[in-house]
């Protein structure tokens, strides 16, 4: 709860870090933090949720009880596009359930993870319960094969999710590995095309188009395709692109992409 209060009072600091390092605009960064806060708040009530259960007389003369116990050390491998929200989906629950967490953030934007670790220390978490591990594949492989790490939670691309699932499970770990997807928007002929165009552009360009749920394919059922293309084209032409922090209090619609490699891929 102390961590929750500190995070709530200083979320503006974290949003500025996300914007400066990932590129998403400040309002988007703040939205990411609020989604992570929801899980932090769930974890404040977790002692009640992990009590276990007792069933009297489940069969003749047999009572049944379940006890929930910590695994020990658990690993979290998080992606570049949500450097605060995705770790906060995992580590509050893991810590509340009695585990020690090793977080390996993306090497593209690791500063949010370090900020969160310092906040944990300020909240009074004992040293060693929350560790940030920097690095790339070498660091990931260390987590996947370490006999001390009992489980792995991952969000990222599908090929890496498959590699992590296969490698970690081969080493006897519990694994949740969430991969990517190509998201499609299906537009039926009776749709409100102005609303559709707004949503398509917001989903395609918000967070620099790097959200897990970014819309990359629009499927229009005729005869509305030409009208829809015109509306989307008009909105794209009016997008403001620039520094995610904004200039003179005016926030752009889209910040920069995460790397020059990603920019070249998008433009191709």
Structure description:
46% of the residues lie in helices and 18% in strands. It is of the alpha/beta class. It has two domains: 2-178, Aldehyde Dehydrogenase, Chain A, domain 1; 183-267, Aldehyde Dehydrogenase, Chain A, domain 2. Strands 5-4-3-6-7 form a five-stranded parallel beta sheet, with helices on both faces. A two-stranded antiparallel sheet has the order 1-2. β1 (53-59) and β2 (62-66) form a beta hairpin. The model has no long low-confidence stretch (mean pLDDT 95).
Major sheet description: 5 strands, parallel
- Overall mean pLDDT score? 95
CATH class of the largest domain: Alpha Beta
What share of the residues lie within helices? 40-55%
Query: Could you tell me the number of beta strands?
Result: 9
CATH level-four homologous superfamily name of the largest domain: Aldehyde Dehydrogenase, Chain A, domain 1
Helix/strand layout:
Layout lengths: L1 H8 L1 H11 L4 H19 L1 H4 L3 E7 L2 E5 L6 E5 L7 H12 L3 E5 L6 H13 L6 E3 L4 H9 L3 E7 L2 H13 L3 E5 L4 E5 L5 H13 L9 E6 L4 H13 L22 H8 L1
Helix pairs in contact: 1-3, 1-6, 2-3, 2-6, 3-5, 7-8, 9-10
Give a brief outline of the structure.
It contains 11 helices and 9 strands. The chain has 268 residues and is α/β, with parallel strands linked by helices.
Descriptive keywords:
alpha/beta, Aldehyde Dehydrogenase, Chain A, domain 2, Aldehyde Dehydrogenase, Chain A, domain 1, two-stranded antiparallel sheet, five-stranded parallel beta sheet, single chain, 46% helix, 268 residues, 11 helices
